[in-house]
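During the second year of the project, the team shifted from modelling isolated chains to modelling whole assemblies. The rationale, set out in the original proposal, was that interfaces cannot be judged from single-chain predictions alone. As a representative example for this report, we include one of the complexes processed in the last quarter. Its constituent sequences, exactly as entered into the pipeline, are reproduced here:
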Amino acid sequence: MPSEQVMKAAMQAYIDCFNRADPEAIAALYADDATVEDPVGSPLKSGKAEVAAFYKMAVATGAKLKLAAPIRASHGNSAAMAFDVQLNMPTGEAIIQVIDVMTFNEDGKFTSMRAFWGKSDMVLLKPPA
Amino acid sequence: MPSEQVMKAAMQAYIDCFNRADPEAIAALYADDATVEDPVGSPLKSGKAEVAAFYKMAVATGAKLKLAAPIRASHGNSAAMAFDVQLNMPTGEAIIQVIDVMTFNEDGKFTSMRAFWGKSDMVLLKPPA
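Output from the structure prediction step:
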């Protein structure tokens, strides 16, 4: 089981790789057989190819991630973090309030990611000028 | 599946019941066959009696819960929230930085709670006077 420090560093790397728009680096944080459920309640993306395609699309939106509170570890192989997805859309500036939960393998790679957010977590900050 | 609003209201009720030190009211938010894993990686408490006993003990510590960011829902039967557990211990004031994930049944009761926090999420704020 990876240490709390290893898990938290991987979560922080996820934020950092996303914010420098590097989908390959995000995909490299995942194990080959990892799954992504984003949002929770939607069909799983499964395996490195689907995960990489998902982040290529996500990063292309220009979205940026900002931690809302310090990253949490656990006494198991999981960690969690609350953050805001900052979006600059044709309809104005908006945020999506998200909590991601990751599980890890022995090598400190993500084996799963689940993103908790619903329609009520999308907040319009500023209408278009 | 309960609405996002119903799930978020139950999460907020959990915080409020905890802060008025009412373990029976917390237990009433749970389904009869619910499980609690707090922290993630520790043995499950299972069923209303074990869940009620856990909160009786937790509330007796005098701990208070403070949301660190708005409660998140999902597109499924789950919600999540980041909060700080505020503790006034003989060793000084401390917080535990936690993320709770709950699943829900059709009646809007918690069927499971998982609390993500590790040793590295315990922060000493002030040593004893």
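The longest strand of chain B covers residues 92-104. Chain B has one domain: 4-126.
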